[in-house]
Amino acid sequence: MRACSETFEEALELGKYVKHASGHDGVDELWGEPFKVFTLSIEDYHASRYIKIAQTMRAIDGIAEAIVNTFAGQEAFDRVEKIVWDYARAACEETEIMKSDLDFFQNWPEFVSLGEKLQSL
Fold first, then answer.
1. What angle do CA 31, 54, 24 make, to 5 degrees?
2. pLDDT tens string for the chain (121 positions)?
3. Rounded distance, CA 20 to CA 17, Å?
4. How far apart are the C-alpha atoms of 38 and 45, rounded to whole Å?
5. In the prediction, which pLDDT does 64 show?
6. 108, 120, 109: which is closest to 83 by C-alpha?
7. Which long-range contacts (CB under 8 A, 24 or more apart) does 58-65 make?
8. Minimal CA–CA distance to 80: which of 116, 120, 110, 118?
9. Rounded CA gap, 101 and 115, in Å?
10. Disulfide check for 31: which of 27, 44, 52, 120 has CB 3.0–4.6 Å away?
């Protein structure tokens, strides 16, 4: 446990020198949530995680709306709206589901097949 703790402390210190592609300092986005759980209280970790999930879902809905609005009224793309909204719904579900959840095995194939439908249009 001590060796593990020392390794994490060293990683935190070295992480100050990491530059993410966004220009922000630190390892949070580079190493993601699994690393963050060791640096925050459980309550703060969950709050941070669910805020990111909500922001991602809002972005997915915004992108879907922009796509639908772009193709609205164009006869050649009359099938796009339903597929885009279905894909956005599946993407939001995928964002929320942990890889260990049993729902993952139901949602992932739907998400992939809807993506393939969009590509085939």
1. 35
2. 677 777 777 777 776 676 666 655 555 554 555 666 677 787 887 788 888 889 999 999 999 999 999 999 898 888 899 999 999 999 998 888 866 667 777 888 888 888 898 888 7
3. 10
4. 9
5. 96
6. 120
7. 60/88, 60/91, 60/92, 60/95, 61/88, 61/92, 63/88, 64/88
8. 118
9. 21
10. 27
- Full DSSP string of 20-77: -TTS-BSSHHHH-HHHHTTTS-HHHHHHHHHHHHHHHHHHHHHHHHHHHHHHTT-GGG
Measured CA to CA, the distance from residue 66 to residue 74 in angstroms comes to 14
Do 50 and 61 meet the contact criterion of CB atoms below 8 Å apart?
no
**Listed residue (31, 33, 6) closest to 20, CA to CA:** 31
The label of the residue with tokens 């963050």 reads 36
SS3 19: strand
Q: Interhelix angle for 104-120 vs 80-96, to 10°?
A: 150
> What pTM was computed for the model?
0.62
Q: How far apart are CA 39 and CA 21, in angstroms?
A: 22
